[in-house]
Here is the input.
Amino acid sequence: MLGAVPRPLRRSTTSVQDLSEAERAWGRADARGLVGLGDLPKAARRLSLTLHLAGAALRDPRAFRTTAVAIRRHRALQKPLELFHYLRFLQPRGIARCLEIGTLWGGTFFAHCAVTAPRGHVIAVDAFPRESADVMTARFRSLARPAQRVTCLWRDSHAGETAAEIAAALDGALLDLLFLDGDHSLEGASLDYELYAPMVRPGGVIALHDIAAPRADGIPALWRSLRRRHESVEFIDHRHAPPGLGIGAMVKG
Here is the structure.
């Protein structure tokens, strides 16, 4: 296993203000530097990460490729080793229905589509202010596998009508995976959990992003509360910058 939360916001959909300081720093970085060497000083600083990534590529080429494409091409705000090990955890779990709260540019959504069944159903919930709903929906459909069903709801995940639309889209089925990366306040993240965790089947996975932020409130506080009550695993890369981020996954009892 590998090893700053914004002020509370009323809406739970992802915007730049919803991102932790670590996510903003990672998002400003040149994602093409994931495995690139560049000049000698940069190569020296990246040597440890490059060696770990080379090992990851040998260990699981499929998960490594998904990680690289998600970060380099689709701007996933994830640390590569954390995302790699998280995807390896998901691959054998039979994910057929996935809900992602807080999708931003769609990089992590792409990764979730890659580990969801070829004819599975992937649902995205967010309110993205830089593109129209039609443009964003078309983009997210392009990130999915050809036969997958994609449902996009560009609105507040806290709204009752949003939860009702998700339930209608599932049509009585339960989720295999719920990924929470929207509102980072304790109040907002807890509300997302309360609304959507009941839609996850027993044995399904509920995952949270930004569990390793240094502050005591927000997502880390919710994660500490949940992990005491469920079988859980953490994917936190303590070795490589930036600090923070981290993915926690628990299995619903």
Q: What stands out?
A: The first strand starts at residue 95 and ends at 101. The chain is about 40% helix and 20% strand. Strands lie at 95-101, 116-125, 149-153, 175-180, 200-209, 231-235, 247-251.
